[in-house]
Amino acid sequence: MNMDQNEIFPSFLVDMGSIVETISSKSYHRIMVQAPEGMKMYMTLLADIIEEATNAEVIIDGEPCYGACDHSGERAKMLGMDALIHIGHTDIPSMKREGSIPVHFFPAQMKTDMEAIKKGLDEILERTEARRVSLLTTAQHIARLIEIEAYLLEKEVTVHLGGPGKREMYPGQVLGCSFSAAKDLPDEVEVLIYIGTGNFHPLGLALSTGKEVHMLDPMTGSVSQVEMQEVDRLLRRRFAHIEKAKDALEKGSDVGLIIGSKPGQERSSLAESMMEELGKKGHKARKIVMDHIEPMKIRALGYEVAVNTACPRIAFDDSSRYDLEGVTLITPAELRIALDILPWDQYSFDEEW
Ligand code: SF4
Taking residues 307-331, what's their average pLDDT? Predict the structure, then answer.
């Protein structure tokens, strides 16, 4: 058997030895494997390797997968599997486990260049002259934080790693639905350094802390800073949606309260409290359960305004698709602003888990 993980995933490191050891030591005979879209093309090879090494039958989950919150332990149970091997995300400790067979999470560490990261860190330190920083990143780069922290300590920079909260496994880890690692930062932390790509997490960090956030791309070492104008632009877009929801409520529109059925996204009690708050203000709402949330599904049910209690990123990432379909999708916190329960200046990302 070829156990060279570099040959399975060109861009990621996955601990294949631990996967095989887990299946063998627990005497699993039938397992399902699940991974996010970027790793799907390697799943057949992975299944072949696991079968050869363990003699267990392997079925691939071909459905899309967006996070650990979206594991298919229940689907695997329905098919009579012994366990689910979920690759690419870290476990969410507070996630509900009922109805699922055992799920084993194996994160995928993105292959990055430590020399490029060091160059980026030097540039940030030179630009900011900061001596006390907080490091934050996502699951794909979390294993790098030890080396990054050691490098900064060598430069006599104090490093703060916050968290983890209820949804993360490691200090310094952030999710699109939880910025716990940036909560309660000591006052002396001067800047936040986010290791990763994309704007969503850095914007969330800037909004929730009000501190300077620097982004370091761990593939290239390039650095940039979150500009407050970007945060303002995001807030303006969200406020436009809140205003639209408010207008529709004033005109008597019913509200769809979306409950996600994915195991780590289900927030029925939050939907219930939204229902009560809407009722108290004289608005009618209906709870709607969905697995994969799509604008046309909401529109087909006749709702112009919907509050999403499932993955908080949907309202941000897919807002233009909802606009095109004539659906205003807002978060629970945004509904409270629309109902005048919360003032505008207390806007925050949705992290109510
Ligand atoms: S941001 Fe969304 S997809 Fe990612 S872990 Fe949170 S709920 Fe799941």
Answer: 97
Residue-wise pLDDT tens digits, 186-220: 999 999 999 999 999 999 999 989 999 999 999 99
Average pLDDT over residues 120-142: 97
Distance of CA 332 to CAs 77, 167, 342, Å? 32, 19, 11
Whether the link from the prior residue into 164 is cis, omega within 30° of 0, is yes
Q: What is the pLDDT of residues 242-272, one digit of tens each?
A: 999 999 999 999 999 999 999 999 999 999 9
Task: In whole angstroms, give the CA distance from residue 62 to residue 39.
Answer: 11
Q: What is the pLDDT of residues 150-181, one digit of tens each?
A: 999 999 999 999 999 999 999 999 999 999 99
Amino acid in position 332:
P
Mutate to test the pocket of ligand 1, among 34, 70, 258, 292 (most ligand atoms within 8 A of CB): 70
Best mutation site among 265, 267, 352 for ligand 1 pocket (most ligand atoms within 8 Å of CB): 265
Give residues (CB < 6 A) around ligand 1. Answer: 66-67, 69, 175-177, 264-265, 311, 313
Question: Does pTM top 0.85 for this prediction?
Answer: yes
**Which SS3 state, helix, strand or coil, does residue 34 take?**
strand
Q: Which residues, other chains included, contact 222 with Cβ-Cβ below 8 Å and sequence gap of 6+?
A: 120, 216
Phi, psi of 88 (to 5 degrees): 110, -10
Q: Which residue has the tokens 């005497």?
A: 27
Alpha-carbon gap, residue 176 to 253, rounded angstroms: 30
Angstrom distance (rounded) from CA 205 to CA 172: 12
Residue whose CA is at the smallest distance from ligand 1 atom 6: 177
Which residue, judged by its Cα, is nearest atom 5 of ligand 1? 67
